[in-house]
Amino acid sequence: MKLKTILSVFTIGLFTMVSHSQSGHNCSRVKTQGHADMRSDRLSDHHIDLTNAYDVHFYKLDLAIERTSTYVDGVVQIHVEVLAPVLDSLIFELWDDLWIDDILLNGTTAVPFSRDESAVIVPVDFVEGDQFFVEVIYEGTPPSGGGPLGNGGMNNDSSPSWGNQATWSLSEPFAAYEWFPCKQSLTDKIDSVYTFVTTNAENMAGSNGLLTAVVDVGASKKRYEWKTYYPIDYYLISIAVAKYVDYTVYAEPDGATEPIMIQNFIYDNPATLPYFEDDINETVDFMELYSELYGLYPFANEKYGHCMAPLSGGMEHQTMTTQGYFTPGLTAHELGHQWFGDNVTCASWSDIWLNEGFASYSEELMLAEFYPGSEAESMNDRHNNIMEFDGGSVWVEDSLNVGRIFSGRLTYNKGAAIVHTLRFLIDNDDQFFQILQEYQTMYGGSTARAADIKAIAESISGLDLTAYFDEWYYGEGFPTYRVEYSVIDGELIVLLEQDVSMGGVTPFFTNDLELRILKDGGDVEFIRLADIDGEISYHSFPFEGEVDAIAIDPANWIINEYGGVSENNNLANVVENTAEIEIYPNPATNQIVIKNGADAGTYFIYDAAGRVVLSGELLATKMIDVTALSSGQYVLKINGGQTAFTKN
Questions:
Q1: Cβ neighbours for 457, distance < 8 A, ≥ 6 positions apart
Q2: Burial class of residue 266 (count of CB atoms within 10 Å of its CB; 0-12, 13-18, 19+)
Q3: Is 576 helix (H, G, I), strand (E, B) or coil?
Q4: How do residues 106-163 score in pLDDT, each as one tens digit?
Q5: Strand-by-strand arrangement of the 513-519 sheet
Q6: Which of 179, 353, 513, 615 is the most buried (most CB within 10 A)?
């Protein structure tokens, strides 16, 4: 999903359990951060546990929908397999105010049911391995508003630009139940889905998979029959109804056995298609690029496409994105989701980075390929937005907070920025894209967590990425880098100092850092600072010539503020003394005395968490008062040397 203006605040409805009846009322039950892996924002913990007792294999939606309202009338089949030893109740979700006329078991027997807010409970009697289905016959008007794009599960509006009226679904993250009965669990992908939409003959209806038939059912109505046979998550099932024209193009990515259809349902307005035609055609180039970088388009046997609807952005409905307009960035983002979010879906909304961070980085890759140079400005804009506030992690602690899930600053911009950082740390594009391809291969058609892509990245690159994830994914904030340098006897000496915006959460960042050295005479040299293990680190490199200027992180690999660059010829003395420091007494009570090391310099004492707890200038006596320190383990660093000591 990409929002034109991503909302930073969203209010979750407050609900409570009610008596078993067709219609409930809103009260005051709140889910909190303690339910980080909850699948639904309305079911009770108990009911969610009961939904784990079965696996959904197939949905058939057979619905009547018009472009003029959100009213839904139809039948949904839910085919399941029992996972628990005994299943005595089938529980699924449906919006409280949608009226259920009947529920049939295996298509023949009407069965009793009860309702507990959004939970529908159907008594059954099955054992592990049994397969059965229920048909839910229902009708009504879904709720409006409340979603991350300001919409509900089913929406109706007219385009402010083109005037065309449309009805469309938007279920992410918790709104599928607002328009059809379903199980809202990220980790239970549906094996296949039929979506049949009956509508006025002047309309067209778009959905997932392939359009297998358009049937004239009489009374000036037609039924559009869509079928997909790829695994699909509940929130990616979609419907869009409007007066459309079909504009279809084809991509021919390497590895495809035949051209891949890109089917676009564009407003039936004489001006709309000509206005967007060139932008839509770029989808071909983007698909061929991503197929090269990520692996073949994952739904190549069916299609890709777009349905227009009056929303301020786009939603990556599997094989047929719903999109309000067409720009290179928006189209690239939603197409990137077909790999990151659709083929492989985050297993928890806490790990939404796996969807949105990589889709957002897909925009950067598109810009680099087709609009070279503009990706630098784009990444700089992302960094500036991230650093408008000090804190916030990419990982979502409260996975029921919709506003936080879809934070533009953290989920989208910081999410894309730290993918860029990961690419820099791997320092090998062949390996980086191999990681993304292996991720698609291992988890395609399923779900994954951040730990899964970490394991793949470590296996392929040979790196330990624990610090990267701790600091940039789970951690908060960003560094401000300051550089001092000196050139002495063919050696460039660099002191790197970092101040961090959220030192109480992330004391310092250990990632490598790139410097661009502009020499007198105009030559340019790049150096990479590695082994950064604290707020201050020293580095030296063989170097010929004189420094004219130094740029910190010129390619924006790292989210950081600029703290300045200055020459300091005293750094030579720092690097000359790299011996380990010896101190006594150790353990210490009140003072420590340095037995070797430089006669002068700034010392830093770090606690076990890596925080600087004491610093100052070394006295001529080489004695440091540590009385104020609490008992524990510490590290003293001065003039390139360091040693550990214990404070009693």
A1: 422, 426, 435, 463, 465
A2: buried
A3: helix
A4: 999 999 999 999 999 999 999 999 999 999 999 999 998 766 666 789 999 999 999 9
A5: 524-529, 513-519, 547-552
A6: 179
Alpha-carbon distance 28 to 53, whole Å? 28
Extract the tokens encoding 450. Answer: 């951040």
CA 309 to chain centre: 23
Structure tokens at 272: 């709309």
- Bridge partner list, 514: 528
Name which residue leads in pLDDT, 607 or 370. Answer: 370
Q: Please give the radius of gyration of the chain, using alpha carbons only, rounded to the nearest integer.
A: 29
The answer to whether residues 195 and 229 touch, using CB atoms and an 8 Å cutoff, is no
Would you call 495 helix, strand, or coil by DSSP?
strand
What are phi and psi for residue 612, nearest 5 degrees?
A: -75, 120
| Number of DSSP helices (H) and strands (E) in the chain, helices first | 11, 37
Let me know: does 340 contact 362? Beta carbons within 8 Å: yes
Q: Which domains does the chain have, with CATH numbers?
A: 42-286+297-342 (2.60.40.1730), 479-576 (2.60.40.1910), 583-647 (2.60.40.10)
| 173 upstream amide cis, omega within 30 of 0 | yes
| Interior angle at CA 113, CA 109 and CA 116, nearest 5 | 160
636, 603 Cβ separation under 8 angstroms: yes
- Return the closest-CA partner of residue 41 out of 113, 123, 146: 146
Look up the pTM and report it. Answer: 0.86
pLDDT digits (tens, 9 = 90+) for 319-334: 999 999 999 999 999 9
Residue 257: count of CB within 10 angstroms of its CB: 8
By the 10 Å C-beta count (0-12 exposed, 13-18 middle, 19+ buried), 539 is classed as buried
Residue 274 burial by Cβ neighbours in a 10 Å radius (0-12, 13-18, 19+): exposed
Amino acid at 277: E
Please give the distance of CA 592 from its chain centroid, rounded to a whole number: 49
